[in-house]
Amino acid sequence: MPTVRFFAAAAEAAGTNTVVVDAATLGELRDALVEEHGEGFSRVLDRCSILVEGHRTDDRETPLSPTMVVDVLPPFAGG
């Protein structure tokens, strides 16, 4: 099951820094996260970048394996 790491506002909205989710695709993972963490989390997730093994993707069909790491990164201010 892929490990999901949340950062900054995403971690605050999820109430945790890390979860393990049973999902075969990025779409399944996103749906499971929203179901688990609710609509408030969904609004944050919609603004986040998703990195699968360090590569940004929005493709819900991206396959996930049990050993993969998925990072959820909200927009960061500053420069």
Describe the structure.
The structure is a single chain. With 79 residues, the chain is an alpha+beta fold. It has one domain: Beta-grasp domain (Ubiquitin-like (UB roll), Roll), CATH 3.10.20.30. The protein is 33% helix and 23% strand. The protein has a five-stranded mixed β-sheet. Strand 3 and strand 4 (55-56) form a beta hairpin. The protein is globular, with a radius of gyration of 11 Å. The protein starts with a strand and ends in a 6-residue tail after the last strand.
Number of helices: 2
The stretches of 5 or more residues where confidence is low (pLDDT under 50) are none
What's the structural domain tally? 1
Quick one: biggest sheet? Answer: 5 strands, mixed
Strand content range: 15-25%
| Largest sheet, spatial ordering of strands | 2-1-5-3-4
